[in-house]
Amino acid sequence: MSSSQVNQAAPEVDSGDPIPQLAVRLKAAGDPLRLEILRLLSQDSYSVLELCRIFDLRQPALSHHLKVLAQAGLVSKRREGNNLFYRRSGDGLEPLFTSLDSLPLPQGREAAVAEIARERAEASRRFFADYGNRFREQQELIAGYDVYGPQVGQLLRPGANALEVGPGEGEFLAELAPRFEMVTALDLSPTMLERAQQFARDSGLGNIEFLRGDTREAAARPGSADSVVVNMVLHHTPEPEQIFRDLSTALKPGGQLLVAELQAHQQDWARDACGDLWLGFAPEQLSQWAEQAGLENGRSVYNALRNGFQIQIREFLKPETATATSA
Fold this sequence. Notes:
There is one protein chain. By secondary structure, this protein is α/β, with parallel strands linked by helices. The chain is built from 15 helices and 10 strands.
């Protein structure tokens, strides 16, 4: 049976009977290319054009496959500016997905995925290299530090070692330094790392190590941090899911990860004005990534801002009995 016949003959997925629902999903997934698409979309969200590059397909052909998967409830989509990004969904098919995800990507596909990740990361790096001097002005367009910083500080649990990913201009280091014996500030941008260093010098903060790199540097120090803080960083990064895995690895058993982030929004001007790669995140999306990285939900705070944005402050905990999560 062709994919178009599957699409036309399929009963409605929202039927109350689970058997027809399962049949629709299995028929939609019963195509080698669509299985490859589902495997890829478990790792990250991709636009149609990115998927065309990865699978070397023309857009009409790929859009047809995505339509079949979407109608079966196997992928979800979100709009960011003029682009639609697709992600795998579909509760109840975990056994199928577990087997699917254990299969490696073909070498050609893996190279295309890696190239797209490099391009996304380079776009973020270029933004902060070009606009580092306007960082505060651009952050104020959405949410200044005062909106979320003090509340994140209230959730901190003092300990021996803390890590802040993407310290920006360094304000939150003043919250971390008195509570921990040693603090590591990790940033990929040399411009922003220099600003954080200057803030620490001006504030007399002497127990801070400054480290240039991405979260792979944190994962290279497994079980080293009591607390990890990520303030308004994830929406600038190409692979938030990987960041959760890296930071879970860096946490000690019983440690906490604190994330301050934008909730999902439709204000696509933030891409050009503020270097955003993601238009925020649904709370359940952060929870899913945390769970997949071996973390548990902790406390949560949600704030609405006057300019239409919403901030979520989330705590995720690494179980006491957990071992470091591999990247």
